[in-house]
Amino acid sequence: MAGRDVPEEYLDGFAVILADASATGRRLTRDELDSRRALGERAAEAGYGLRALVGAHLAAARAHWPAANLASTDSVLAAVEQTVDAFAEGYERAQRQAVRQEEAARREFIDDLLYGRSDLGRIAERAERFGLRLSHAHAVAVAQGRAGYDDGDAVSREVELALIGRFGDRSILVTTKDGRLVCIAPGDQDEVLAFFAKQAYAATDGGQVAIGRPQPGPGGVVQSYEEALNALDLAERLELDAPVLRAADLLVYPVLTRDRQAMADLVLNALGPLRQARGGARPLLDTLTEYFASGCVAAEAARRLSLSVRALTYRLDRIHRLTGANPADPVHRYTLQTAVIGARLLDWPEKEF
To answer: Which stretches make up the CdaR GGDEF-like domain (predicted)?
Structure first.
């Protein structure tokens, strides 16, 4: 008998091998080993568990054990060992191939999902295989650290296991893309993305996480993902050091840069005269940046710039004389602050336009 729930076909020829080993004491031939590996592959592809298959081989060995007067115990046991080893090798080879195919399919799906380069209806169908129901709104969080990360490495596994341990199966997908950690979650489960941000921050040793807004449908994942990427890009250009950035809180910046030419005109008109200063525009532009970042508190701005308050005041006066706009005057402050943001977004004065 093959053993409970394991068909006889996966033990084909096993009894003959045992009898021959008992009679001659020989080891399995190459063809016999290859046939055992092939059977192991077929059993794995059919979905049978390795434990049940090994048990079936042991049961068959007991049932077909050669007669005592012919049997060489060592030879028969060696044949059983070789048979099971070759069978398990084929089984594991098939499993590795299945894993590789699954990983390739998962990576292809993720690339299509995040780039939106495939038919959205087809993406939605494939998504269910990976636990996502794209008929609902989803939001995407992206974590960026000092190093690049890949699926299966220690950092991504740590974050994924933490999420599974906390939330179980909640239609959450954790993956990597372009060296960043990515988490896709239902749009009404903000607690999932907040927990991901906390875990990713720790696992990446102080990396930065951006969270896109919930967006509906298969195309919504792409939109939320791009919002998160844009938030990370803004953080780098504006030197925003908050550990977690939400795209919803940064909407003013895309608005400011939507008309690039208008922003460039504002920067040149409001800040262009700073280029006349000794040392160029950069030191005075940095002064304005820190002055506004400190809430227009001169003492705090001076501390950030490693200047005395008197030196900072001199710089602010110099800015006033060159531009005609007083940073301390609320009427002028908005224009100057908007122009400073625009300068950082457009990389001025390093890039002229």
So the answer is: 116-234
The token pair at 12 is 């084909």
Residue 209 belongs to what H/E stretch? strand 208-211
The 10s digit of each residue's pLDDT in 273-300 is: 999 998 899 999 999 999 999 999 999 9
d(CA 114, CA 220): 10
Q: What is the pLDDT of residues 126-171, one digit of tens each?
A: 787 777 888 889 999 999 998 899 887 899 999 999 998 898 866 8
Question: 231: which 2 tokens?
Answer: 């938030």
Domains by residue range for the chain, with CATH:
8-98 (no CATH), 128-248 (3.30.70.270), 254-345 (1.10.10.2840)
CA triple 293-297-302, angle to 5 deg: 80
Q: How far apart are CA 61 and CA 55, in angstroms?
A: 10
In order of 270, 307, 316, 318, 349, the CA distances from 283 in angstroms are: 16, 12, 11, 11, 11
Q: Are 213 and 248 in contact (CB under 8 A)?
A: yes
Among the listed residues 340, 219, 215, the one whose alpha carbon sits nearest the alpha carbon of residue 271: 340
Instruction: Point out which residues pair with 186 in neighbouring strands.
Output: 138
C-alpha 308, offset from chain centre:
45
Q: How confident is the model at residue 70 (pLDDT cuts 50, 70, 90)?
A: low
Q: Which of 346, 343, 353, 332 is nearest to 281 (CA)?
A: 343
